[in-house]
Amino acid sequence: MNRQRPVLPRPSASPGSTDFVWATGIEDTFISQPNPRTGRIMDEYALTQHYDHWQEDLSLIAALGVPAARYGIPWYRVEPQPGTFDWSWTDQVLPALVNQYGVEPIVDLMHYGTPAWLEGSFLSSEYPDRVAEYARAFAAHYKGLCYWYTPLNEPRVNAWYAARLGWWPPYRRTWSDFAAVLVALSRGIVETQRAVAEIEPQAVFVHVDATDLYKTADASLVEEQTLRQELVFCALDLVQGRVDETHPLSGWLRKHSISVESLEWFRRHPVQPDIIGYNMYPMFSEKHVLRAANGGVEVKIKPCWVETFTELTRMYARRYGLPVMCTETASTGLPSKRIRWIEDSVESVYRLRAEGVPVVGYTYWPLFSLVAWPYQRGKLPFEEYLIHMGLWDLREDPEHPGNLRRVRTKTVDAYKQVVASPVPPLASSA
Fold first, then answer.
1. For the segment 152-180, what is each residue's pLDDT rounded down to a tens digit?
2. Which among 114, 128, 279, 307 is least surrounded, fewest beta carbons within 10 Å?
3. Which CATH superfamily is domain 21-420 in?
4. pLDDT, tens digit, 9 for 90 and up, residues 305-316
5. Cβ neighbours of residue 251 under 8 Å, at least 6 residues apart?
6. Cα dihedral angle (151, 206, 93, 342), rounded to 10 degrees?
């Protein structure tokens, strides 16, 4: 498959003053195994009717004037059986996104979840090879059309829900399970990037994880706070081969049954992203470590604002010395609050670039309302789980019951305005 236009400029370690990517995306969580209690799966494309309304949705993306969109691929649908691929749906959508609408897909190869046929999910010994085979098949099929790739979205959150909360397969709940899944996901990222790069040498890799800023006012919990903060970076550090015996998490990983051989494997097979992507939300991304009533430790979310966004952006740029991109951000609430978040966070990006912090992109996510993850475990109608934090709101069409309308909000105009405005140049050094 070929495209009818050039790719976006390739980012560099010293991006130029015009290297900046505005983007959006459609929430695309794919948990294909039915919940044992409710029988529900979690396919956001199905729940928000994107499979049916994809042409309209692509036109909404294009109307924003953004040059790029993070776009997830439902692995469980395109590989319904091991080694058998069905590209019939993506063959419609991806060429249209590129050639009809002129938008670069930042392909999300993995946005949570594995196909149901992969027994054990991320703890299957076959997982790294299976996900790499899928990635290789995708890259070969879309060679010449897709160039920007995220191997796996939010490995830390994925491991948390699959192996600490036990919400998603393989339904584990201990810190050792969390460590095992995080290491497996990280190995899958390495194998995925290597597989894609073999097929598409011009590929641009955007590694994405959720970010958090951990704080504590209790001196006795500083060690715990430091551990939680280091875990934010664990997957990014592993895939880049940064976890050696001097790394702050080396002892913790060993304590939780991660072998020296496993860690050494990453040291021997590092991959480097072109861009470090971080997902930050003011309603989730600041965590306070507290002493619980029973003497243990508890972590509470504290709503935050742009100061936390700014601090986290600096933290990623300083730690990795690579271009950084906000790959998801939004605020819940009325459109007026969403607009204020866009204005304040974009202004933060501009100030950071003036300091020389290499912020090369910003993604307002999602394009429209999403369905909260408790839907899969709950029994209420899915409408009860809708969260309105997008540019468009999803509302049931009164004239066509069961059909979800994309209702434009003033947030659309606010984002279009910043996308159309000149981006201040990046200063030469931080």
1. 999 999 999 999 999 999 999 999 999 99
2. 307
3. Glycosidases (3.20.20.80)
4. 999 999 999 999
5. none
6. 130
